[in-house]
Amino acid sequence: MPFSNYFAHFTVLDYLSNALDILLVWFVVYKLLMVIRGTKAVQLVKGIFVILAARGLSGLFGLDTLSWIMEQALTWGFLAVIIIFQPEVRRALEQLGRGRFFSRNVMQEDKEQRDLIEALTKSVSYMAKRRIGALISIEKETGMNDYIETGIPLYSAVSSELLINIFIPNTPLHDGAVIIQKNQIAAAACYLPLSESPFISKELGTRHRAALGISEVTDSITIIVSEETGAVSVTKNGDLFRDLSAEDFEKLLTHELLTKESDSSNRWIWRGRKSDG
């Protein structure tokens, strides 16, 4: 049948149903991508696209052995994806059960971010004045589930009182990092990877080295309160911003967590005291 005659017998209802079908498929795919965003599954999805590209190119250039290997990878890939993506699949089903899969309240998210900034500013200011050491890492796009699993799971609402109580010396959870995920305290007493950079100043301790380490492997924002001096520092993308005032600290969090804030109002950040260690 010529392609031009394929749509000859289509009615208006057929066109509408096909258009709706395509839109629904794209919407479901988009929501699935939103579910896996910020997790290790993103890297695995990229790997799948690499395999598909390799399969196509190997067939195009007659690379029979590579083509056979890619064919086997695709044949058994569906089962592998189910096993590898198990946490993401479970999370998607949970969100679907709660009715959150197809809805996203932007205003609610904005309020939660502002409440998070307020709680962090209040708790960090309190701990800095009393020289209570603290290490808090805020997950952004790159997933931190591997590090969350090393700590004690909490999954509680963020409050300044809870953050302060966690880091009070000689309490069970004070040693290690708090990781905040999706505006919740996901876990406390977590282990973060230490930076191996030889350029870190000798005057900085384990908390700063851990904060730099996690900033080198994720895009998280990590807050450090020095137990010795009470100074507040923040790491991001391998950079360390030291000795921030309460006002500058709040502005930095606002800039990083509230993406709608204008860049022009936050230029001060890159004029702060930046240190490689």
From TrEMBL:
<keyword id="KW-0812">Transmembrane</keyword>
<feature type="transmembrane region" description="Helical">
    <location>
        <begin position="6"/>
        <end position="29"/>
    </location>
</feature>
<keyword id="KW-0067">ATP-binding</keyword>
<keyword id="KW-0472">Membrane</keyword>
<keyword id="KW-0548">Nucleotidyltransferase</keyword>
<comment type="subunit">
    <text>Probably a homodimer.</text>
</comment>
<dbReference type="InterPro" id="IPR014046">
    <property type="entry name" value="C-di-AMP_synthase"/>
</dbReference>
<dbReference type="Pfam" id="PF19293">
    <property type="entry name" value="CdaA_N"/>
</dbReference>
<keyword id="KW-1133">Transmembrane helix</keyword>
<keyword id="KW-1003">Cell membrane</keyword>
<feature type="transmembrane region" description="Helical">
    <location>
        <begin position="41"/>
        <end position="61"/>
    </location>
</feature>
<comment type="similarity">
    <text>Belongs to the adenylate cyclase family. DacA/CdaA subfamily.</text>
</comment>
<keyword id="KW-0547">Nucleotide-binding</keyword>
<keyword id="KW-0808">Transferase</keyword>
<comment type="function">
    <text>Catalyzes the condensation of 2 ATP molecules into cyclic di-AMP (c-di-AMP), a second messenger used to regulate differing processes in different bacteria.</text>
</comment>
<protein>
    <recommendedName>
        <fullName>Diadenylate cyclase</fullName>
        <ecNumber>2.7.7.85</ecNumber>
    </recommendedName>
</protein>
<dbReference type="Pfam" id="PF02457">
    <property type="entry name" value="DAC"/>
</dbReference>
<feature type="domain" description="DAC">
    <location>
        <begin position="86"/>
        <end position="246"/>
    </location>
</feature>
<dbReference type="InterPro" id="IPR045585">
    <property type="entry name" value="CdaA_N"/>
</dbReference>
<dbReference type="InterPro" id="IPR050338">
    <property type="entry name" value="DisA"/>
</dbReference>
<dbReference type="InterPro" id="IPR003390">
    <property type="entry name" value="DNA_integrity_scan_DisA_N"/>
</dbReference>
<dbReference type="InterPro" id="IPR034701">
    <property type="entry name" value="CdaA"/>
</dbReference>
<dbReference type="InterPro" id="IPR036888">
    <property type="entry name" value="DNA_integrity_DisA_N_sf"/>
</dbReference>
